Amino acid sequence: MNHFSLPAAQQLILQHTARLDTEIIPLAHSLNRVLAKDILANRDHPPYDVSAMDGYAVRAKNLSTCPILLTVTEDIRAGALPVMTVSDGQCARIMTGAALPHGADTVIRAEDTETVSPDTVQINVGATLGTDIRKQGENLRTGTIVLQAGMTITPGVLGILAMVKCAQVPVYCQPRVAILSTGDELEGLDDPFDSNKIPDANSHTLFAQVSALGITPTLLGIAQDNPVALAHAIRRGLDYDVLLISGGTSVGVHDYVRPTLAELDIQMHFWRVAIRPGHPFAFGTSPKNQVFCLPGNPVSSMVCFEQFVAPALRQAMGQRRLFRRTLTARLSHAIGHRHQNVEFVRVQLAQDQQGYVATATDSQSSGVLLSMAHADGLLIVPADSNGLAAGEAVTVQCLYDMDYQNTPFGALI
Ligand code: AMP
Ligand code: MG
Fold it and tell me: Does residue 185's CB lie within 6 angstroms of at least one atom of ligand 1?
């Protein structure tokens, strides 16, 4: 098989990723899930015209000359209904959110008035008709679609669900994900310290990467590099929708993962992608499973997860935005590039007056996980690049939540 290009590999994976069924979950658990049905408003909100301010409900035409004295007919509190009609020369004291009384058409805020006696107020400023009134149904209108299927449930969306009293929310299901590390050299987190072994990092980085998508995966532990042990562990993994296997996919004589998967009727769609780090990546499916074979090197495993696994998991959960956001940064130093692969350089991002500045972290060897631990992003070097110069504009894929920024709002105004 030839090396697949990055876009071809991503496209093929997504073509083999079906959106999952739907389920109903409690509102409190629905944050970041994807709505599976359109949601209709079941009431007008506000239920009638209400005041947007604490102040006085008046007739605008009475205020052509100000200041003017008006007689206060009643106090209207939020949640109480008015009993009096406001006639010429009158007004009602009204609280934010309280129903506008008959006869009134405008609200004057309390700050623009002076109390003369308990039932007389001086209005100091006029206002155009309808000022500071929230119209009936301005928030929600009975029978209209207020949220569309496919929307991600953000805190704001969750608030609307609460407003329409949707206590049980229809959402797309989450895939069940299992994680298997392979390698005779690996030592588990709870195993006794053995100076001849290498600690299993991939089980835990993958666990964290899956968890960051809102899915709690299952760790299957470490399988030894022999076909029997591997087949046994993989069979357990095939009880899940998605199996992530790290290590054992390369060309070593003890790399049994791909032949073992083939024996278990997993159809392998490709092996090797023209990226660095991460080229010994493979992808297979059965009617019930997706299997992602990630390279053993810890950085490669993480990079492949971001490019191939995360978009597929997001698509399965009904998300529309599948890929990490990218931003443009200036490179603080030159980077060489002498091969035909798309390269992912681990970088730290800083901000100055001109924007973001990207600087490579530590050694860029695919075995040095500290390069990832110190990184905010992956700088993408195109396959046909002859290297990047200091100061050049580059594209960086952000690894962590890009809905946040590192300056307070006040610094921008
Ligand atoms: P492999 O892809 O199995 O040839 O492994 C490539 C390199 O990654 C080897 O140096 C392994 O020791 C290392 N490696 C494989 N699996 C893990 C793991 N789970 N955690 C840390 N390093 C690993
Ligand atoms: Mg190995």
Answer: yes
